[in-house]
User: Fold this.
Amino acid sequence: MKRIFSRNHKSYGFSLIELLVTIAIIAIVLPLISLSIRNLVMQSQLAEATTQLTSDLTKARTSAIRHSTSVTVTLRPDSYTLTQESPFQEQTYTIRNNANMDFLKTGSYVTTATSITYNHPYGEVDVPPDNQGWQIRLRKGNRERHIKIIGRTGKLIVKK
Assistant:
């Protein structure tokens, strides 16, 4: 007579213990991964906002040289405006990805509007009264980047 049930049968699934251990490992690793991804996304968004602002500041300087007109950049905490002498139109830009801007004045960062004028014919900027140069800080969450406008030349340096 044949045995219908055998003690040597193979199991094709996972035991409850194996499933619980796997779920516990995933529960521990998943928050770490999501935090890393969130920081990476925030850093990328801040880099994008910094690139936007620096390219527009460079564009303002180049425009002052090319068209022999003064270009004023008015910086606010969440936006900035490029104003050029007639016949050009004023252009307002919003800082991308909800990044915020503040400006170094007399040793501390403030959020009041600040204007920088690129003068023709060489695209030079006026040095602020405190002689520290123009410094702009872009912030998003706990990340920040600094943009410094060097002396009268109006050239830019970006620091993390």
